[in-house]
Amino acid sequence: MARRASDAAVPPPGLTVLAALGIAFIALPVVGLAVRAPWSDLAALWTPATRSALKVSALVTFGATALALMFGLPAAIVLARSKARAAPLIRGLILLPFVLPPVVGGIGLLAALGRHGVIGRGLAAIGIELPFTTGAAVLAAAFVATPLLVLAVEGGIRSLDPRLEQAAAAMGASRWYVLRRVTLPLLRPHIVAGLVLAAARALGEFGATITFAGNIAGRTQTLPLSVYETLQSDPGAAILQALLMVAVSLVAMVALRGRLLSR
Amino acid sequence: MSLDVDVGAHRGGFTLDAAFSARAGDTIALLGPNGAGKSTLVDALAGLIRPERGRVTLDGRTLDDGSEHVEARDRPVGVLFQSLLLLPHLSALENVAFPLRSRGTRAEPARRAARAALDRVGAGGLAGARPMRLSGGEAQRVALARALVGEPRLLLLDEPLSALDVTARTAIRALLRRELAGFEGVAIVVTHDPVDAMTLADRLVLVEDGRVTQSGSPEEIRAAPRTAYAADLVGVNLVTGTLEPAGDGTALIRAPDGVVACVPPPDLAVEGETVLGVLRPADVSLHRDRPEGSARNVFDGTVRFVSMEGDRARVGVDTAPPLVAEVTAASLRAMGITEGSRVWVSFKALEVRVVAV
Q1: Which of B48, B88, B99 is opposite residue A166, by nearest beta carbon?
Q2: Contacts for A68 with CB less than 8 Å, ≥ 6 apart
Q3: What are A's interface residues with B at a Cβ cutoff of 8 A?
Q4: What is the ipTM of this complex?
Q5: Could you tell me the fold of the domain covering B3-228?
Q6: Percent of chain B with pLDDT strictly greater than 70
Q7: Residue B150's closest chain A neighbor by CA?
């Protein structure tokens, strides 16, 4: 058979083997869960505890993603455009939660917003106590999720043609109008990518949440915390819960990733 | 004058210091080599940068002076950008409506005006298309519609033809000529191509190193170009050197790369004066053999290039100084002259125009 020029885009067989190894490495734990799961007890999964953990997780993921957008989008735009000498330092700072162990982030949040924290003391004085509330779980997840949105949007800004915004200004657009009608629409795919990454990170968040928000069923106990707790007493049920997380995450990733890549 | 410009600005290590004026209905070509400051000047006129000194007035209204600065959005200026810069996420119609919308016109009237502008430039059928799907010529039409849409009093066209292929260029050139002829405000065409400048504009403003070095009609500049760039643009030979009067009314211009005989005006016939000798290529004769006759300037050399322009040929010869002759294609063929031919070149001293530098 004649080889067509487009065959050049087909990866060599060696690479395909390595790719299969990579995919297997990621898939293996999932397969492990599926094999070890006590499928006959499936009905036992749908307990009120699981349902409430699922609900808290949904709330926390949604809230944290919204906060990541609110905090991260302006920060990403301003930092990417800033010529200030401190900008690289601040750019590094805002990415810190990305590399920090989440537990450390949780301790930091406690130190700032806890009952005796720097700001928490003031909040407590006016009757607001954050720690060990659903709000705290949202904050903890937003803390670790925001850098991902910042990274995605900053990358997008760098790929923008700055002349388009200059042209818009020359056509009479105010800075807000340029932002609204030119910059943000052009950044849309990158913002969506950032949102997906932030949501995924918030959904899986564990360390900062348990430190700052605790593990209170119905209030701060998200699915990952619930899996961890169940593992102590009933490993079989924990595996089923873990599979539930896999299912939820997989659906979210596949659905959103398709939208992302098709723009 | 309808437009009066006299501005100075710094950008990086570059200094702009330029002045010119234009009447309503005029088309001015801002002509200069790359990096001469044309874009900075355009940005200043569009209101994107604030000149550090000087003033800009349009129809009697001050757009810039030391204290005042009218923002881009409040200027009646339409811009066609180099490389167009159509917004990729908007349709052609939305692109054309953009300058109106950004200045506060409501959606429906803006769309109507945009549609009319697209029709006017022959792009009515492209209203719904995204810029990525447009050909170079189509995109240029949409960009022109966008520049014209607000009925601006000042139209800035930055390199409107440079990105187009030959076919599209001819069509867009005709469109531009038509639109510019009917345009009632001041139009400024920025270009580095003398042909574009001369076909589109009534007057040329030459910008070199951030300064206006000369302005006038192409004929005026051709008659007395002030810089080598100006002379080259309008296609004339230029010899810069010091004058050596011979006493009989004639003189020699001693240039680093050769000597030319001329007849300077009496007030210029001063020993050691630095002058430009300007010689139209059409006044230069070509010969296969050494010519006998009255011409004081006779040189021999090798033909470096022959460039055909219709039924005329421009022939570059590496005489000292190097010269360009313009002859008919027919006589070129009759003499059998091609690149590399040995030829003689002659012209009268009287044909060298002498200009003080």
Answers
A1: B48
A2: A142, A145, A146, A148, A149, A194, A195, A198, A202
A3: 161, 163-164, 166-174, 177, 181-182, 185-186, 188
A4: 0.78
A5: Rossmann fold (3.40.50)
A6: 97
A7: A171
Tell me which chain B residue has its CA closest to the CA of residue A189.
Answer: B89
Q: Which residues of B touch A (CB under 8 A)?
A: 43, 46-48, 72-75, 77, 79, 81, 83, 85, 87-89, 98-99, 101-103, 146
CATH numbers and ranges of domains, chain A: 45-262 (1.10.3720.10)
Tell me the pLDDT band of A106, cut-offs 50, 70 and 90: very high
| CB-based contact B102 A174, cutoff 8 Å | yes
Domains of chain B, by residue range, sit at 3-228, 236-356
Q: Which of A161, A163, A171 sits opposite B102 (nearest CB)?
A: A171
What's the pLDDT tens digit per position in A185-212? 999 989 998 998 899 999 999 999 999 9
Burial class (CB in 10 A: 0-12, 13-18, 19+), A157: middle
Question: Above 90 in pLDDT, residue A228?
Answer: yes
Q: Using CA atoms, how far apart are residues B50 and B21, in angstroms rounded to an integer? A: 19
The tokens of A148 are what? 């991902």
C-beta separation of A110 from A117 below 8 A: yes
pLDDT in tens, B193-231: 776 787 789 899 999 988 899 999 877 886 677 887 886
A-chain residues near B163 (CB < 8 A)? none
| C-alpha B353 chain-centroid distance | 22
From the CA atom positions of chain B, what is the Rg in Å?
24
Residues whose CB falls within 8 Å of the CB of residue A113, separated by 6 or more in sequence, listed in order: A119, A120, A123, A130, A131, A136, A139, A212
Average pLDDT score, chain B? 89
Just give the CATH number of B236-356: 2.40.50.100
